[in-house]
Amino acid sequence: MKSTLKLILIAALLSVSFSGHAFSIWTALKSGNTFATNYDVENYICTLHLSDEARIEFFKQANGDFNRYEELRRQWAQKRFNSGLRQMAYVSAVQRHATTSFGKETRAFKITESNYFKRTQELETRTLKKWLDQRLGIVKARIAFAQELKKIGYPHKKDQDDTELFFEWFTLQKNRLKEKIRLEEVSKYEYELALGYQREFYVRPVEIFDFAKEMTSKIDSQIEGARLTPRELAEIVASDEKISIMAKSIELLGPSTLTLSKLSSEAPAVFDDLKTELEKTSLSLNQMPKYFQAADQLAQSKSEAELQDSIKEARNKFLLSHNDYTELMKAKIYELSLALKSGEKIEFSELTKYQQIAQEQATRLLQVALNNPEDVDSRIEDHLISGITHLRDQFSSLNKASKEAITLTNWILKFQVKKTTLAIKPQARVTLIDRNSWQGQKRIEDYLRNKQFTERLNETREGKLSRTGEYIDLRLTKDTRLEGHDAWSFVLEQF
């Protein structure tokens, strides 16, 4: 009877909140005396996982329309429905196991109402401290805080009373705190179950020694001194989590990470490859007319605002792509187009003189640097640019468009060198933890303890907890039902 009444009430509320949008309600979870609809699961997901900052962002996307905000919030929750249902069901099963005869001796789930009330009061006091310190009183402090919430765009109904908004926000915080406490108690009980009758998880000294020996050998054979791209290194490290326990740091020594002097002394094989490739590279500006033509066409076809947006977009793509220099090239061309937009023309006679001088100077700098790397305290492409930048001073009387063309010229020269450096595989250098030190041994011991705990916990979830878990009845949709072993297997997929 109570369950039926609950469904009727929720349906009535939703018909008001989401009028015009079909919304089905079904019993999503039954676990002992726990009963939850799909609407309850969505609220659970939002309470625990949708931060206040994200709520403000959704309200902003909804342009301050509270009903539209609610739709966005529900859509966000629905995408996470299965993971939220798994978590809710697991927490319910663990709490039921802990609070029945199975968990009679547990220290978990002993939080009293007075303890919870104390924590909520502390939360309210911290929140309102600024206004309480001004002796405004609790009522006015709540109103002042609600007004701050409205100013920063926290979701609220049009003309919503400030006091009502405060208690709506505070209720959410209390519910969030309650669920976080419940998760803390779940972790506490999991540890007790996994520990069993032991006092602690024990790691023998020989296990620490064997771990260090095994991982040192693996790192020496697969990483230390190996020529690896960042992706290849990431794949190796991801393939075995123990590597990050034994390795204190891993560096890639290459032209993009080291100055030329350090590269030649710390990774001579990488330097030799770089020198070989750069000696084959003939710095050329033959493609410049094509870039000037593209810039001129863009200046004619795009507005100033469009060009500025294009510059910003290309630079953002460059940063997000982890150094895709093609995007940076586009940004440089857009910048030249913007200069041409003013109606200025490139002074090609003077530009040609600059290009000849710059190309010859860059070629000489490259040759000298490769033959005397110990004198170069910067990356090779930066050394090249710094060595030709002063040449611009001889052409300071040129118009803005011509100066942008000079900037593009310099960048093209730099890009040719950069393109070569990016093709050189760096060399990995690993610094291992000191396995003979107390800190090193503790780091390994903590990992092995945690591994024991995880293995025991997985056994516990599939063993002791499954006795309670298999009483769970789930509905993923109105027509998709799981019960017993199938339901518990679905719940354990989150781990």
Short description:
This protein is 67% helix and 6% strand. It is α+β, with helices and mostly antiparallel strands.
Description of the structure:
The protein has 495 residues and is of the alpha+beta class. The protein folds into three domains: 2-200 and 452-492, no CATH class; 205-254 and 427-450, no CATH class; 260-422, no CATH class. Helix content is 67%, strand content 6%. It contains 22 helices and six strands. The protein has helices spanning 2-17, 38-49, 52-61, 66-79, 81-98, 113-132, 138-151, 162-195, 205-222, 230-239, 242-246, 260-266, 268-280, 288-301, 304-320, 325-340, 348-371, 380-388, 400-422, 438-462, 464-469, 484-492; strands at 27-31, 34-37, 247-253, 427-432, 473-477, 480-483. The strands form two sheets. Strands 2-1-5-6 form a four-stranded antiparallel sheet. It has a two-stranded antiparallel sheet with strand order 3-4. The longest helix has 34 residues, at 162-195. The radius of gyration is 32 Å and the shape is extended. Mean pLDDT is 90; it is low at 1-21.
